[in-house]
Amino acid sequence: MEMSGARQATTAWRRGACPTLAAPMPTGDGLLARLRPRDAALPLSLARAVLLAAGRHGSGLVEITARGSLQVRGLTARSAADFADDVAQSGFPLAQGPAVEISPLSGLDRQALADGQAMAQRLRAVLAEEEAGSSGFTDRLAPKLSIVIDEGGQADLSGLIADLRLVAEAAERWRLFLGAQDAGLFDAQGAVVAVRASLRALAQLGRAARGRDLDPATLTLPALEAATPEKPAEPENEPGAETGALQGQGRAPEMKRGSARQSPRPEAVTLVGPIDLGPGDRLTRSFALGLGFAFGQARAADLIAFLELAEAEGAAELRLAPDHGLIVAPLGEAALRRLMARAEALGFITRPDNPARAVAACAGRPACASACLDTKGIAAQAAERLAPLLDGSVRLHVSGCPKGCAHPRAAALTLVGGPAQERLGLVLEGQAADAPSIALDVSDLNGALTRLSRCVSGARLAGESARACLRRLGPAGIAAALQQG
Q1: Residue 439 and residue 426: Cα distance in Å, rounded?
Q2: H-helix or E-strand spanning residue 343
Q3: What is the arithmetic mean of pLDDT over 15-41?
Q4: Most buried of the four, 235, 308, 364, 420, by CB within 10 Å?
Q5: What is the mean pLDDT of residues 264-268?
């Protein structure tokens, strides 16, 4: 039986499996390899060695993914093998098996409630033991299954979708969530036992099963406290947050700070710009510097230059961070300020209010064979023209095709390419695969974005966010504004 046109289109735009170092993914500019580090911290010398290899064997373009992995672009079949050999010789600590993710500040954050690195080691040991006891155990788990460990520190991991999530409430108290379902409070050993039981249940259900498919009531879990019956309210879809119903997507529910159920935890910090790590052993304050890449991409040579400057200022390690960022540490206050200025001169983002941080863009044309747009160029135009709208409430997604790889969830505004290269769609409050609300001419994009910015700026009520204004105007009001000369 032949597939219908709609079914064929859906299949053509389907997102594939994640690339790895051993199995790079074909793209429009060659092969793309992804390196997922096992450890939170990488020595600067090791990071430089890998980046030098990326420049030697690839196109020189590197990316950090939304979950904090390093991607290297422009490899060939031959150079990909050479790059993998260089990475192996460097000693880069590649993670194996299902993702076990911790705070990028783990080990540095003196305000963390628990030791996320120690818990990660225990859970990786569980996975290894289960694989040793039942060959093929990890192959029976979902390919993209993830375990997130939130140690209750300054880094906010709630935007990372997780199948299993441990959230520290005290040094030896962990709350387990299966998807978004609260499975109860455990001591450290009980949390390990509960995660093992959950993984075994998922393996029995098969590769299509995710954490949200488990029912805590059917598992034998040594909880200190039963799961809370409250259903968390669905959060607003703000920049950096994962969207979708909590029950269905596995986003972390909001935890009440300072409540009887949870020890007070520090306020979350933005992982771009200065990060105060607090006083050290000698009571001198220590800092980290978080960087962002403009539209998720940077040149390896620029990053190497930055790391050399960071090392000269006393930094010793690099940490990859969620939401396409990286962190270098430790730094004194004077060194931090000097390094920020040098990073900005190299084109990196060092300030949380930079409009480019609110724009997610895929590799685009010509880097991706599926793309119909020069997404990086359009993203730069949009960040400039729509800057008044990018107030923290609006996330803009620029996608070269309906797959939506850079932001596979709903955004306030999405510009998406399609078969007609001179046209692009504007999706309001949706995903790249959704039907566009408005069609735009690429040749008039600057004018359209300027009119949209003026329309929203003029229509905003006192105290109203740009996103709330966009919702109030709706597709009809926005379309009318875009049609004005």
Answers
A1: 6
A2: helix 333-345
A3: 88
A4: 364
A5: 82
